[in-house]
Design brief:
mainly alpha; rod-shaped; 56 residues; transmembrane; membrane; 2 helices; transmembrane helix; single chain
Length: 56
């Protein structure tokens, strides 16, 4: 969970710098790519979570 939050923070910071600073549009693109990769990583972790089976 800490990795997810860290990558989310990095994506937001890169996106803000890329959107505000003139000539640094590539940072906005990198921020978007990091955000998408973070969401994919989070989705994979949720799908791999072991399912609990009811006790008999």
């Amino acid at each position: 969970m800490a990795l997810f939050l860290f990558l989310l923070l990095v994506a937001i910071v890169l996106g803000l710098i890329g959107a505000v600073a003139e000539g640094l549009f590539y940072l906005l693109i990198i921020g978007i790519v990091v955000l998408v990769a973070d969401l994919v990583l989070f989705g994979v972790r949720l799908s791999r979570r072991p399912r609990r089976r009811p006790l008999r």
